[in-house]
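sanity check this fold:
=====
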Amino acid sequence: MEVNCLVKNVERIIGVVMLFVSGSGYGAALGQPQRTSMLGYAIGTALISVDDPAGDTDTRWALHPLTLIYTARLWSNGIRYWSELYYYQTTLDAGPTKIGQDVARYGMRLSLQKSLPVAPGVTAWIGAGFDLSHARYSTRHTVDDEGYLIRAYPDRDETGLAGILNMSSEWAVTRDWMIGAKFEHSVPIDGQITESLFAMTLLYRY
């Protein structure tokens, strides 16, 4: 059943991304400026907390080592969409009153962003959207002050939806390549993970 759930979620993610990719191509066919699409990779770190139904958890910084990006202009008035596929793992420490656990999460983020000139040659993008993800919480347990097990809890699986707010900016390195930075905050709508993320991006423009 877990494999079927994984396949279904991946299919949903791919379907949504392809829908927006095809919409972007249609806009270009109507005479939108060329080279407004970018493919890229991001690495970042996020302060995450889990709202575990059995009790409190630790809050910690987690490395986001694998994020794939596709972004493109939608209209000529400074609107673009920003989509990501991501995966990460982290461990929340256990304590007498905090439930420790291993967290593995994959998903898709999608947002609309509006350009905002902030200085000559510098443009920031402000956006909002959603994050659809699947998370597995394993090895859930509490320990005493000496590290001995107090209680073990069953593993959990969860598919969640979160709202996101973000801000990003990019700078040209060559004609085709850009580097950038992004800050994002997500709040769960149907799920248990809250994140504040900072990432560096490398983008290829075409």
About this structure: The longest helix spans residues 2-29. Strands lie at 37-50, 60-75, 79-92, 100-119, 122-143, 149-153, 156-172, 177-190, 193-205.
